[in-house]
UniProtKB/TrEMBL annotation, chain A:
Keywords: Phosphoprotein. Residues 3-117 form the Response regulatory domain. InterPro entries: Bact_response_regulator (IPR050595), CheY-like_superfamily (IPR011006), LytTR_DNA-bd_dom (IPR007492), Sig_transdc_resp-reg_receiver (IPR001789). GO terms for molecular function: DNA binding. GO terms for biological process: phosphorelay signal transduction system. Gene3D superfamilies: 3.40.50.2300, LytTr DNA-binding domain. Pfam families: Response_reg. The modification 4-aspartylphosphate is found at D55. This is Two-component system, LytT family, response regulator.
Automatic annotation (TrEMBL), chain B:
The chain crosses the membrane at residues 197-218, 225-241, 261-284, 296-318, 324-345, 357-377, 389-413. This is 7TMR-DISM extracellular 2. GO terms for molecular function: phosphorelay sensor kinase activity. It holds the Pfam family His_kinase. GO terms for cellular component: membrane.
């Protein structure tokens, strides 16, 4: 059984999460609900849940405030539930923390719950939330960290600015860092390409994505981009122009 | 004159018949009846030539005289040398009365008259001569020598004649009674008076010409006038001196008897040549018009100058005949060259009108000279005629006058030309000036036009630039507007709200509360539809806005489980259907009010009110009030990092500014935090003033 707490300022939201958990995830029991941050922290401390469904925006704060207030004494897995999120999406995703969008659909709820269940068994959440909160406080991607689950099932931490490029490796994604390290991630290239699309990265072709700060030279005549490490990647004409205009900005 | 002399001589010859013929050929026997007649003495006179001129009267008295009639001539004769001869006449008075007669032998250079009684020495009775006698008009009487022989006595008379001049006047000795000589004197006087009058008239005319040219020269300093004046002055002198040799006439220069000889010597005619050439040179302006002729004239002038010096030298040496010879040859030599020069000048006359005057004048003189020369040839022979060329025959005088008149006319014409030239130059100058003025004016105009064009161009460019800037600004505005509008729409239809609404609907469905779900869904659909509709429009009616806000607040109230109350109060005077307000202007403030109203721990129920008031005829006021925690505390409550801030309010502020700019209205937004006024109060009041167009 997994003990859960739901924190949301809207009753309708709390009700529907509870209702859906009851209906689709019988192994999860809702121990308590809270309508704001302060109450949420109190309920967590009171019930010591293993899983907390957290609304991001509440009248007296955000879901991060709840995490900050409870990380010292309570260890739990968090699942963010939000109607619409843009600002903190990358922070949450980089830390591989689950996020469910309202209105909640059955599949995402089930997937999140099953993942959390695995994590509770693996007991590897401490580092993840540390990274999440650090990233939340920095908010500048220049010092973000990225949690990556490799093909062996281990979780690795990568300093985001050190990533030189990402490459397609069949169903997985290969990370190269400027120190020459290579890391094969479990998730596909497409997942990271989407995640990084609003960060200072650029997909130069169908197989590769590079970090802009690592570009040392662009060879226009041969359609090549030279990276600081000496690596050469190919770029199509259309994307080269696009890249140039982005670099100018 | 010569004819008169010839007539006179014929008369003498006739008279001779009345004289008693003397048996002794060298002694004239005078009778009592001599008194009334004139007697040709040639048969009674013996002569002695003295070419050396050393003989005195004492010597001559002892020398033998021969009868040599060749000495006598009744016309002018060119001796070609000095003629120095002695004549001896013996008269024996056989009458009862003493003989008192007068001997006249012509006008000669030097004449000495001696009388000698037998056994006695000769005494000089009279000394005279053209070169010697300085007397006035009375000197002409000196040439009649007294012959007085007491009754029954014999007297010997010696006449010494020296003719230094090349031309010798008629030498025809005749004996006159006193009455006869008086008659002769009167006749001569009459005949010479005509010539003298002609010369005087000529002199007068020449003087007039001279005055005219001098006056002209003073008025208009033209060298040709002064040359002409000098030339005329020369002519005046020449003709005035001519008077000197007219017997019994008044003259001007009798005190210097030699003068007339100098001028009479043809060599001095070269002076006229010189002045003539110089005059022609300057008059015709040959230097510019006819440089070759100018050179010819200069050369000839130089040569003539040389000849003049030679002639003067000869005269000084008393070799009067040498200049005559020189002049003769020069005259013959220059006849053809003169013609050539005239022809050459004539060919130029078409381009040079002055040439015509010069030519006519020159040809007049030339022909007059030639004519006069030809006229002289017959009576005088070739050389003598040459010598007499300068003597003023009527023809020559006419020629000189014509020439002077032509020249004067030419000078006048030249003046006219100069005047015309000057006038033309002035006209040209004036024209040029006018042209210059015109040009200047045109240039000024052009410049003005240019400046105008440039100014217009600059203005146009400036305008263009301004327009461009305006367009750029407008584009920027448009861009900003679109951006802000998009942002505003996103902000206004808060995705949170949308998805939370959907979430709520989902819950009702799951709870099987279908009626509520349907109501919720229809309200939500209305709201979304209206939002989409309003986002395309700039203005909507107030009624629409109120309905929209009502629906929105109803949905919010449903979300917040009735923890919120709201009211919309509309001034009944407002015609809501007609009044228009900018679309989606109020929604962000209402949303903010809902948000803040829900966050006040002291107030369990959020109170929200919206008032529409007509505060002036053209001013609509909208007041959105809540009882929330207020803006300041809401901000401080936020734990989000500073760069996380709600942009909804800012967007709406921007939007108001944008609307003001776009529609030139004065929408005014005032946000009042009640807690700032009074600690006890809480809440926010947003006042929006919307002017009616």
């Amino acid at each position: 059984m997994i003990k859960a707490v739901i924190i949301d300022d809207e009753r309708n939201s709390r009700d529907i999460i509870a209702l859906m958990l009851e209906k689709y995830c019988p192994e999860v029991t809702v121990a308590a609900t809270a309508s704001d941050c302060a109450e949420g922290i109190a309920r967590i401390r009171e019930h010591q849940p293993e899983l907390v469904f957290l609304d991001l925006e509440m009248p007296d704060g955000t879901g991060f405030d709840v995490l900050l207030g409870t990380r010292e004494d309570v260890s739990f897995e968090a699942v963010f539930v939000t109607a619409f999120e843009k600002k903190f999406l990358h922070v949450i995703r980089c830390a591989e923390v689950e996020l469910i969008l309202k209105p909640i659909d059955k599949e995402s709820l089930l997937q999140a719950v099953s993942l959390v269940r695995d994590r509770i068994a693996g007991n590897s959440s401490k580092q993840r939330y540390q990274v999440l909160l650090e990233n939340f406080h920095n908010l500048q991607h220049a010092s973000w960290k990225l949690l990556v689950q490799d093909t062996n099932g281990d979780t690795q931490t990568i300093f985001l600015p050190s990533v030189e490029c990402l490459e397609v490796r069949q169903e997985n994604c290969l990370f190269r860092t400027d120190s020459g390290q290579e890391l094969l991630a479990e998730r596909p290239f497409r997942y990271y390409a989407d995640l990084f699309s609003s960060l200072p990265f650029y997909q130069v072709n169908n197989m590769q994505m590079i970090q802009l700060s690592n570009i040392s030279q662009i060879d226009a005549s041969h359609g090549k981009v030279l990276l600081k490490s000496g690596m050469v990647v190919e770029i199509t004409e259309r994307r080269r122009k696009d890249l140039l205009s982005r670099l100018q900005r | 004159m010569k004819r008169i002399i010839i007539l006179m001589l014929l008369l003498y010859c006739y008279a001779v018949g009345t004289l008693a013929v003397n048996p002794a050929p060298d002694t004239l026997i005078a009778k009592d009846d001599f008194a009334a007649s004139a007697l040709d003495l040639r048969p009674y006179i013996n002569s002695l030539s003295d070419p050396e001129g050393h003989l005195t009267i004492q010597q001559v008295a002892h020398l033998p005289f021969t009868s040599s009639p060749h000495y006598f001539h009744n016309f002018k004769k060119n001796n070609g040398q000095v003629n120095n001869c002695w004549f001896r006449l013996q008269i024996k008075n056989e009458g009862s009365d003493s003989l008192s007669a007068i001997l006249f032998a012509g006008w000669h250079d030097f004449m000495y008259w001696y009388s000698k009684a037998p056994g006695d020495s000769a005494t000089l009775l009279m000394q005279t001569g053209l070169m010697y006698d300085k007397g006035g008009v009375e000197r002409w009487d000196h040439y009649g020598f007294n012959v007085s022989v007491p009754p029954g006595q014999v007297r010997t008379f010696y006449l010494h004649i020296i003719n230094k001049s090349y031309n010798e006047n008629p030498l025809m000795p005749a004996l006159f009674s006193e009455q006869a000589f008086a008659r002769f004197h009167n006749k001569e006087q009459d005949s010479y008076r005509k010539e003298a009058v002609i010369i005087q008239v000529l002199l007068g005319m020449l003087l007039v010409f001279f005055s005219i040219s001098i006056i002209n020269y003073i008025q208009l300093p033209d060298r040709s006038y002064i040359y002409f004046a000098i030339y005329i002055l020369g002519l005046i002198l020449f003709f005035a001196l001519r008077l000197e040799s007219k017997p019994y006439q008044l003259s001007f220069f009798h005190r210097w008897p030699m003068l007339k000889y100098y001028w009479d010597i043809p060599g001095l005619l070269f002076c006229f040549y010189l002045m003539y050439l110089m005059f022609g040179n300057t008059f015709l302006n040959l230097k510019e018009r006819y440089p070759f002729m100018e050179q010819v004239f200069t050369w000839v002038s130089t040569v003539v100058g040389g000849l003049i010096i030679v002639c003067i030298y000869c005269i000084l040496m008393e070799q009067y005949h040498l200049p005559v010879i020189i002049y003769s040859y020069v005259y013959f030599c220059t006849l053809v060259p003169f013609l050539v020069v005239f022809v050459a000048l004539a060919r130029r006359s078409r381009h040079h009108p002055l040439v015509r005057f010069f030519l006519y004048g020159s040809v007049c003189l030339y022909l007059a000279c030639l004519g006069s020369f030809l006229m002289h040839i017959r009576p005088l022979g070739l050389l003598s005629a040459l010598g007499e060329l300068a003597a003023p025959s009527m023809l020559l005088i006419g020629g000189v006058l014509l020439q002077a008149m032509f020249f004067l006319a030419g000078l006048s014409y030249r003046n006219k030309l100069v005047h015309l030239e000057r006038t033309r130059t002035q006209e040209l100058l004036i024209k040029q000036l006018n042209k210059n003025k015109e040009l200047q004016r045109k240039l000024n105009e052009q410049l003005e036009e240019l400046v105008k064009e440039q100014t217009t161009e600059i203005l146009r460019k400036k305008q263009e630039l301004e327009e461009q800037r305006k367009i750029q600004l407008e584009t920027e505005y448009d861009k900003k507007l679109t951006e802000i509008e998009l942002k505003a729409i996103r902000a206004q239809i808060n995705p949170h709200f949308i998805f939370n609404c959907l979430n709520s609907i989902q819950l009702f469905v799951m709870q099987r509360d279908y009626e509520y779900a349907q109501k919720y869904l229809s309200d939500f659909s209305y709201l979304i539809r209206k939002t989409l509709d309003f986002s395309r429009r700039n203005f909507i009616s107030l009624a629409d806005e109120i309905t929209y806000l009502n629906t929105y607040l109803g949905l919010e109230k449903m979300r917040f489980e009735n923890r919120m109350e709201y009211e919309i109060v509309v001034d009944p005077e407002i015609a809501t259907a007609e009044l228009e307000i900018p679309a989606m202007l109020l929604q962000p403030y209402v949303e903010n009010a809902v948000k803040h109203g829900m966050t006040n721990p002291q107030q369990p129920i959020g109170q929200l009110s919206i008032h529409f008031n007509q505060i002036a005829a053209d001013m609509l006021e909208c007041v959105i009030a809540d009882n929330g925690i207020g803006i300041a505390r809401s901000r401080s409550l936020r734990t989000l990092p500073k760069h996380h801030q709600s942009s909804g309010m800012e967007i709406s502020q921007n939007r108001a500014e944008l609307l003001n700019k776009m529609y030139n209205t004065e929408i005014h937004i005032e946000i009042i935090d009640l807690s700032a006024r009074n600690e006890a109060d809480s809440g926010t009041v947003v006042k929006i003033l919307i002017p009616q167009l």
